[in-house]
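I would like you to sit down with the pair of lines that follows and say whether tokens and residues agree.
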Amino acid sequence: MVNNLPILKKSTLIFTDLDGTFLNNDNFSFGTNLEITNEITKLGHFVIFNSSKTFAEIDNMFKDNNIQFPVICETGGGVYLPEDLVLNSGTSEYTTVFEAPKISQLYDDIAEICKGFEGEIQFFDKLSHNERIKLSNLESAGLILASKREFSMLFLWRSTEERLKILSNLLERINIRIIRGARFFHLCSDFDKGTSMIKLINEFKKIFPNKNFITIALGDSSNDMAMLKVADYPCIVKSPGNKNLYFSELSNDITISQLEAPKGWYECLDIVFKKIGGN
């Protein structure tokens, strides 16, 4: 399959979301995407996982599959590079490029504001064990890893858009923002997938000063929008939840797959590589 991709003169930085983009949103199947990713890196490209998942979840996935790639976790809260950029080395050492303030440092201020929204906001870590399994589609072991959040908090919203806007305005006064994800809303400080993507792009430029990188981003939901706006080639992987996603802020060169994940991920990449190869 990868053999059909054109050999590009420039290296690409491929930033990809996980759930609903790289892997299926319901059963978390990779399909052949891990194999494709390994082959892409051998061609001189870099794949970076830019996800709302915790570092613990992503690192566990890497260890299970004997792989290692750059990581942006918790919707931009942490940015990490494998030491010396030795991909697939099997080591577990990372260099920290960026870490946001710990969400625990902001918890009291957040809790004080949210008192006025009792019954409207439900924090993920306050739900019952069975509710968390049902909503996250994770088993108990995966749920433990998903709960190891350092830079963000997950919540469900049980009220109107107007009330959500009021909550958002109050939280912005303490530099906390609300990001809407595919399954949950996220509370975090002043970062997102796009700002952290820029930090990592700049880091790659320092490491490889003689390379001219092309950036590709693949996502499936509104919390990917900041990442997609930054990319030279933004890609949307089709999913039931993004039929009404607002695309007009993206470049005209947006690619939208016909297939859902995991096949939609390679479909987008195939289209983009051919676009780049033809330029």
